[in-house]
Amino acid sequence: MNQKRSIFGALKWIMFNYIFLGILILIGLFIALAPDLLGDVIPRHGTVGKLLTSLNERKIEDSQHTVMTIPDYVRRVVTIGESTVDIMGAIGGEPYIVATDGSPYSGSTHVNGRVELTVDSIKSYEPDVVVAPDSTPPSLVSSLRAAGIPVFVYTKKDSFNDIILATKTIGKIFKDEDSEREFIVSRRNVKKLVEPHEKDKKPVIALYNSSHGVYRSGIIRDMIEQVHGIDGAGNLVITESGKDINMLSDVWWYRDHKTTVDMNQSMGTKADLIRINPDVIFVPTRFIDKLPDYKQDIDAIMNDPDLQNVTAVKKGYVYPVQELFVMSYSWKAFMAMEQMAKWLYGPSTYEGIVKYKSEP
């Protein structure tokens, strides 16, 4: 009898070990094969999380052809530079931004963390990867990499096509295969509004705010041309120190030779606006998010005695457009273009706004 009990006890012990081992194997397979299902149940930045994610890594190449190793499951990102947060929005990356350096054009996104551009400040957020434009100081990039932090550098240039390229490049971090979806939607909406007016005379368009001046960049030219307009500020000179009244140049040259336009340095003046004499003025302002404050910016133009002979002012073709979108160098610039198309060719829904009438 005792012998039977001994054998039965040994079998139970062996079976327990096998069951326990099987449970461990199942847990391991679950972690290895389906990490996304876990969400943030296991923190990826803790000691256990680091161990688990180290089992699932991949190599990725940035715009400068630097190859780096990042977790297969990226969930902690620090962004650097204007617009990077907004670009992340197009690929669904906003929830994973733990800190940013305070980009002024990311107004729609709430990010608790704010970093200084130092290794210690950025490292304190334990990022899986840092995403930064190519305007980031190379010394900072190299110092971060020396500290073991992957830095994904993207190219920031002054055109719609380059915005799309930058978004697709950053999308590789999250394995986003559909990063163009936001651009496609806006372009489709604009095309639908513009097509019935393709034979109309193109209006000369300028972006102007009395507090800042005439806006000029390749992105703005892209917006204007896609809404069937002529960029009135396109031939205002753009130099690193601002406008040279003795020269004429074109934003296309600047686009080919410079990374981006520093709008603060390259604004045109009220005199430039008068010389352009646009048919339509779009006013970059805090339209939508600060209603009705935007009307003050419209009124400042409509009531300016110096501008009463400008065609757009005489006819009342002065419309607001969201400043944060215009300045974003991200998919939100396409939303600004969509706003322009709606003002020009869509139904008017705002009281006191004179509806634009295109000419044949």
Task: Walk me through the structure.
With 360 residues, the chain is α/β, with parallel strands linked by helices. It is 40% helix and 14% strand. The protein contains 15 helices and 12 strands. The protein has helices at 2-33, 47-53, 84-90, 119-123, 138-146, 160-171, 181-194, 218-226, 251-257, 263-266, 270-276, 294-302, 311-315, 323-326, 332-345; strands spanning 57-61, 67-71, 77-79, 97-100, 113-114, 129-133, 151-154, 204-209, 213-214, 230-231, 280-285, 318-322. It has a 5-stranded parallel β-sheet with strand order 5-4-3-6-7. Strands 8, 9, 10, 11 and 12 form a 5-stranded mixed β-sheet that branches. A two-stranded antiparallel ribbon has the order 1-2. Strand 1 (57-61) and strand 2 form a beta hairpin. Helix 7 (181-194) packs parallel to helix 15. The termini are far apart. The relative contact order is 0.11. Residues 35-45 and 238-255 have low confidence and may be disordered.
